[in-house]
Design goal:
This protein is of the alpha/beta class. The chain contains eleven helices and 17 strands.
Amino acid sequence: MTWITHLQILLLATKKMGLLLFLMIFQCAINSVNTYSVSNPNVVLLIADDLGIGDLGCYGNRTLRTPNIDRLAKEGVTLTQHLAASPLCTPSRAAFLTGRYPIRSGMAAFSRVGVFLFSASSGGLPSEEITFSKLLKQRGYTTALIGKWHLGMNCESNNDFCHHPLSHGFDYFYGLTVTNLRDCKPGQGSVFLKGVQRNHNAPFLLVLSYLHVHTALYASKMFRGKSRHGLYGDAVEEMDWSVGQILDVLENYNLSNRSLVYFSSDQGAHIEEISSSGEVHGGCNGIYKGGKSTNWEGGIRVPGLLRWPGVIQAGTYIDDPTSNMDIFPTIVKLAGAQLPYDRIIDGHDLMPLLQGKVMRSKHEFLFHYCNAYLNAVRWHPGNSESVWKVFFFTPNFTPEDSNGCYDSHVCFCYGGFITHHDPPLLFDLSRDPEEKVPLTPETESRFYEILSVIQRAVDNHTRSLQVVSDQLSWNNLVWKPWLQLCCSSFFQFCYCDYDSENGLSEVHSG
């Protein structure tokens, strides 16, 4: 039975339970997987969208029910200082796939808009970028991406697919090419499907990139109205159920011990989102300041859970700085592939840290960008427990004593939207994780010494950057009708049929 036939059956079988589609595609992909050594594991990467670190029981939440995600923490490693490489979807996902700061691939904007808004934009993850899916595919892995992409689609025509997941090392893609917006019908979006024949005799890479819990929020009937936090809580609990189904399939097929599972979010919760009826549609970032689109800890400190029974010690907590860019070198090395030698990889292999072979992360410095602008730097000295963080500028919150940019629903990175600091704001996150009180020369005797060390690191980092094409320029961001797959009233040569029950669509040419 072909992959397409499987999907046709699945589409009919999941009329009322859209997330079951993910589970069944996943089960279909692993039915015939053989036994592999520890050095060649199956890889399951579960990425939530806009999920706050404070939304999960394993990170302290006591009102939302997340037993399956919490199970990953109990049976694996919890990273307590795990960081997204950007506080926005597009650059964060580019960094995750490539192991590189998004500024290196042109996936960080100099303009106000920092993400792709249209599937008919011409920008996207450049073809010369090397993703972990490309390298694992070369090593014989069957690779699939289910869910959100948000890294571009086409370049010059509506079928060149130059930025599409299938052009970046994925054998299968079923999902949303942009993001979960209110652009077709309330609570619905569109899906794009392209499949090829499977390789049964290979380990697999599955990236399950959830639309949950990005707005517009959606929860199926089984979960709607069941949580204590409205529609947002319903969506979190439905996602947790889906994670449980994935873990059950691994267990039922005796794959748990041969599979590395990773759970995270692309950035922190969007705390400013309010529905038209006044209901809060954002999540909880715990004790951390700010949220999505800011480099305060609430915008970039995200869940980081990894499980591999028998290989990673269960119930372990690691408080050193780690990054979502670290997944790239970690799984590339596990698959026996070579890291690219012709470019800088900013992530570091996590396995020595996860297995307790080393006690410190290799990230002495981490650079936090607001779009293409260097916003903050983190320094974790090798001989100290301190984690210093400096801000060169901060977003202007509205009102001033709030945690967000309420007027715009997103914080911008330049001009009148920010305040520059000279000297930079300095925090020690080991003592002040909430970033409440900036240090001064009077309260920190090493104030200028710390700033000097960080400035040298910034200089070295800046020298390592090369000029690349700006994928998020206005020209690359603008909607182009000739690139549109599924068309609107502005362009009458094709149309979309929508299934009103589950938001699935088919594309028809006119």
